[in-house]
Amino acid sequence: MRLYTYFRSSAAYRVRIALNLKGLAWDAVPVHLVRDGGEQHQPAYLELNPVGLVPTLDDDGQLLTQSLAIIEYLDETHPEPGLLPAGAADRARVRAIAQAIACDIHPINNLRVLQYLKREFGISDAQRDAWYRHWVEVGLAGVEQLLARDKRTGTFCHGDAPTLADCCLVPQVFNARRFGCDLSAMPTVRRIAERCATLEAFRLAAPENQPDAE
Predict the structure, then answer these.
(1) Residue pair 165/154 in contact by the 8 Å Cβ criterion
(2) Which of 51, 98, 132, 188 has its CA 20 to 30 A from that of 11?
(3) In terms of C-beta density within 10 A (0-12 exposed, 13-18 middle, 19 or more buried), how is residue 78 classed?
(4) If pLDDT is split at 50, 70 and 90, which confidence band does 122 have?
């Protein structure tokens, strides 16, 4: 397996965690999202992923895109350990937490959105960072309630083993801390992220441990 990745990409970070949780061997192929206008926009990469985003997973010639789709593919092709619960309602809950992060929080704070705000509207770095912090804090406050109010939350987002939801939560918390977001009112989010950080699969997936880390 080859994962086209960028060390600080939240979406690629999710997939790195999942690959490691599954115990799969994979090679990182760095795609620099900033240098030279963004390598993700170069023709060679667009041949692999016409959307021009990371990650892309090459599984013996099978090209897969979109982090949540990739993780569910890995869960179906390598079922142990499972990243989705057995019951339909529990699977829906885990997907809902994952999508609250991957579909609601992340897209409006993605690199290309922040670059567009700065390029087209001339906002300052301080205004860009304020935008980021606002939407991440609002989104994670909602995730905190999803976790804190539900008895199915355990050591991790759902029960006592990592799931798809944890694969999404940890990268978002990493970026929240990088931008100085206030997580003081989110004890459950912080507790789970700290527990995940003790696992090798999460540690090895962390941005600072990637070959392209800067």
Answers:
(1) no
(2) 188
(3) middle
(4) very high
pLDDT averaged over the chain? 97
Task: Quote the CA–CA distance of 96 and 146 in Å, as a whole number.
Answer: 9
Angle at the Cα of 98 from the Cα atoms of 96 and 104, rounded to 5 degrees:
85
CA 109 to chain centre: 12
What is the DSSP annotation of the chain? -EEEE-TT-HHHHHHHHHHHHTT---EEEE--SSGGG-GGGSHHHHHH-TT--S-EEEETTEEEESHHHHHHHHHHHS-SS-SS-SSHHHHHHHHHHHHIIIIIISGGGSHHHHHHHHHHH---HHHHHHHHHHHHHHHHHHHHHHHHT-TTB-SSSSBTS--HHHHHHHHHHHHHHHTT---TT-HHHHHHHHHHTTSHHHHHHSGGGSTT--
As a whole number of angstroms, the distance between CA 25 and CA 15 comes to 13
Q: Which of 149, 35, 19, 16 is nearest to 93 (CA)?
A: 149
Total-model pTM: 0.97
| d(C-alpha 199, C-alpha 32), whole Å | 27
